[in-house]
Design brief:
Two copies of one chain form a homodimer. Chain A is an alpha/beta fold. Chain A is built from twelve helices and twelve strands. Chain A starts with 7 loop residues before the first helix and ends with a helix. Chain A binds a DNA duplex through helix 2 and helix 4.
DNA sequence: TACGCGTGCTAAGCCGATTTAGCACCCCCG
DNA sequence: CGGGGGTGCTAAATCGGCTTAGCACGCGTA
C-alpha cells in the first residue's frame, strides 16, 4: 500500500553517488574503503531524511541470513503453562535483532512438516523445536538446513543437537534435601519409585526427579519410607494415594509428590482424614501449577522455569547462528527449577516442636 | 548447515534446460509458453528427485510478496485468556500458506516501533495489531507500507483500517433478552448504567454491552430496576454491589454483571445473604472467564470469541493481501459472542413455579 | 615526459527466482 | 529460393542490497 519503500538506489541518487558508495557508507565500511567524510555525511543525511531502511529480505538473499528464527511447538503457544516459554523466547530474540516465526503442530506430523518447510523456504537462520511437556521426540528430516535446538525436549535418538530442559535431577535432589533439612526421615514418594526407573512410561521428568531424590536419600543413608509408581498423575490419583499412605499403621508425615496435581489430591486426602498441612503432613512437589498458589496452605513446589527455558534456547541458537556454527553437538542445557516456598513444608523448628508435643 | 539448498539453477542444469524454462514449467506456465510435454516432464521429475523447493525469500524479492504476516500484540500471546486468539490466527494463516511473525510489546511504544519496523523490513505482506482487551488504540506510523488490521481493538481516531471485535452490542441485547425470556421484569445492572455511556472510562466493551441491554429493556417498556456504575470490575466490587442490591427493600432477583469477576463477587454476596442462584437471584454475565465454569452453579455468560477473532482477522487480512487491495476501509467486523448456558439463570418455568409458590 | 602510487569512488557481478522479448529452427507456400 | 508463420526454448533484465576489482585523477619523483 501507499508509497513505495525508499531503496538504497533512491538514497544514492538523491545523494548524487553510486549505490555501491551509499551501501559502503551505510554499512559502516566507508572509512575502510576511503570514502571522504563529506560524502559519508551527505549519504547519511540523505538516508536519514528519506527515512531509508534496508530491505532485510534483499540483504538476506545475498548474505544468506534473514535475522529470523522459527519456533515450532506442539501446542505451546496457546497453553498458559508454557506461554511464558514463548515470551522468554520472544524477548531474547528481540534483544538480538531476530524476529520469530511461530507455528503450532498440535502434534500432527504433517503440520510439523509443513511448518518446518515453510520456515526453511523463508530462509530462517535457525529452528527451535519446542514441546509443551518435557519429552523425548523424534526429529524430522531437513534439520541440516539450519541450526536447530530442542526446547523442553530431548532427541529420541542420539543426534548432534543441543537441548534445553529443566534441571529435574537437581530439583529432585533439592526436594529430598528440603524435607531432610526440615527434620523428616521417613519420606514417602507419590507418583514414582521406589527404585530408579520406576516411573510411568514416557515421562522424562519423572526419571530425573526420582534419580535426584534417591541420590540424596541414599546419601543420608535412607530409603523412601514408601513409594507409589502411579500410571496417571491427576488429582484423583493423588487423592487415592493420599488416603492409602495416611491410613497405614505408620501414617506418612512427609511426601514428595511428583507433580502439583497429585499434590492437590493429597491435600484433599489430608483434609478428609483430619491431617493438617504441613503440621501432620509435609508436602513438596514439582511444576508450580497455577493452582499451587491457591491451595491452603500454599504448595511448596519446584517451578518449571518456562521463561528461562525459552530465553535460553534462543540465546544458544542465536549465538550458534552468529558464529556461523556448522557443527552442533549433543549438549544438554539444564535450567535450574526455582523453589517456590509456600507453606506446605514446616521448618525444622516447627517439626521439632511437634515431635516434643507428641512426646509429652 | 549441511548441504546447500537445491536452487532452480541446479534443477535446470540437471534437466539440461535453461533456468527460465525450469521456472516456467514449475510455476505452471509451461503450456502457456509452449514448453513441450517431454521437457516439462523432465523438469518436474528432476525437481522432484532433487527435492527442489523454491526459495520464498527470492520469490519475494521479485514479486514483492513474502507470504508472511506480522502479528504485534500488547501481551496477548503469553496470556491464557487470549492465547486462543493467537491459535486462531495461526490456524487461519497456515491454511492460506502464510507464516506468522509474532511479537509482544508489553505496551511499550518503542518496542512496538521496533517490532513493526522489523516486520516491515522483512517485507511482511500484512500487519495485525492485536490487543489483549478490547480497547481503542492509537495507530503507529508506517502502516501505509502494508495492509493492516486491528484485532480486538478499534482505532483511537478514524482511520481507513478494518477492525475485528467481539459483538458486545449484540451480547448485551441477548443478555437482557435472556432474563426477559426467563420471566424477569426487574433487572439490575452491575458495573455500568443506568443511562447510556454510564461506564468506567476507557472501556469499549462496557459501552456496547450497556447499549444493547438498554435497547432491549426499553423495547420491552422497561428501565433497569437499578444500576451501579463501578469504576473497578473486580470480585470485591461485585461483592459490595451484591450486598447492596440484595439488602434493599425490594431485593434484586435478576442481575446482569458486566463481567465474570463481578459476577464472582455477586455469587459470594448471594451466598452470604442466604440467596440461592438462580432461584433467588439470576445472574448473567460476560467474558467466560475460566472461573465461570468452576462456580456452583456454573455461571451463564457470553464468551469472548478469542479463537474466532484471531481467525477472522487473518482471513480478512489474507484476503486483502491476495487481492492486492490498496485501499482499505474503516469497517468493523463484529464476531458473535457465544452464550455459555450454565446454571445461573433459571428457565421461565422455574421462575413461574417460584412465583406461584411465593403466592401461596 | 613518463612512471608509480595513493586517494576516492564506481561498475559490474552476485544471491535465486520471475518475466518478457526474441532467437533459431522448421514447415509450407508461392 | 525467399518469405511468412508457428513452435520451442532461452537470454537478459529485474527485484534490492553487498562486494570486489579496478578506474580516473592528481601528485610526486626520476
Amino acid at each position: 500500500m501507499g508509497r513505495r519503500r525508499i531503496t538504497l538506489a533512491d538514497v544514492a541518487r538523491a545523494a548524487g553517488v553510486a549505490p555501491a558508495t551509499a551501501s559502503l557508507v551505510l554499512s559502516g565500511r566507508g572509512d575502510e574503503l576511503r570514502i571522504s567524510e563529506a560524502v559519508q555525511l551527505r549519504v547519511r543525511e540523505t538516508a536519514e531524511s528519506l527515512g531509508y531502511r534496508p530491505n532485510i529480505v534483499s540483504q538476506g538473499l545475498r548474505s544468506g541470513s534473514s535475522r529470523t528464527l522459527g519456533l515450532v511447538s506442539d501446542t505451546v503457544a496457546t497453553s498458559q503453562l508454557a506461554g511464558d516459554m514463548i515470551k522468554g523466547a520472544l524477548e531474547a530474540a528481540n534483544e538480538r535483532g531476530f524476529l520469530l516465526f511461530i507455528g503450532e503442530t498440535e502434534g500432527d506430523k504433517a503440520a510439523e512438516r509443513r511448518l518446518l518447510d515453510g520456515m526453511l523456504d523463508r530462509q530462517v537462520d535457525g529452528i527451535i523445536l519446542a514441546s509443551m511437556f518435557t519429552r523425548t521426540r523424534p526429529l524430522p528430516a531437513g534439520l541440516d538446513q539450519a541450526p536447530t535446538i530442542l526446547l523442553n525436549a530431548l532427541p529420541a535418538r542420539p543426534a548432534p543437537l543441543p537441548s534445553v530442559v529443566p534441571d529435574e535431577l537437581d530439583a529432585g535432589r533439592r526436594a529430598a534435601q528440603l524435607l531432610l533439612d526440615a527434620g523428616h526421615r521417613r519420606i514417602h514418594l507419590m507418583g514414582a519409585g521406589p527404585r530408579p526407573g520406576d516411573v510411568p512410561p514416557g515421562t522424562v521428568a519423572g526419571v530425573e526427579r526420582l534419580a535426584g531424590i534417591l541420590e540424596v536419600l541414599r546419601g543420608a543413608g535412607l530409603e523412601p519410607a514408601g513409594a507409589l509408581n502411579l500410571s496417571s498423575w491427576e488429582p484423583p490419583d493423588g487423592w487415592r494415594a493420599g488416603r492409602e499412605i495416611l491410613a497405614s499403621e505408620e501414617p506418612a508425615e512427609a511426601v514428595i509428590c511428583f507433580n502439583d496435581r497429585l499434590a492437590f489430591g493429597a491435600y484433599q486426602a489430608a483434609q478428609e482424614t483430619g491431617r493438617r498441612v504441613p503440621e501432620d503432613l509435609a508436602i513438596v512437589s514439582f511444576d508450580d501449577h497455577p493452582l499451587a498458589a491457591w491451595l491452603r496452605p500454599g504448595l511448596t513446589t519446584f517451578a518449571i522455569p518456562h521463561h528461562a527455558l525459552g530465553r535460553r534456547a534462543v540465546e544458544l541458537l542465536a549465538e550458534a547462528v552468529s558464529n556461523g556454527e556448522q557443527q552442533r553437538e549433543a549438549s544438554v542445557h539444564r535450567i535450574a527449577m526455582p523453589l517456590r516456598e509456600r507453606g506446605s513444608v514446616a521448618s525444622a523448628d516447627q517439626v521439632q516442636g511437634r515431635a516434643e508435643r507428641a512426646a509429652q
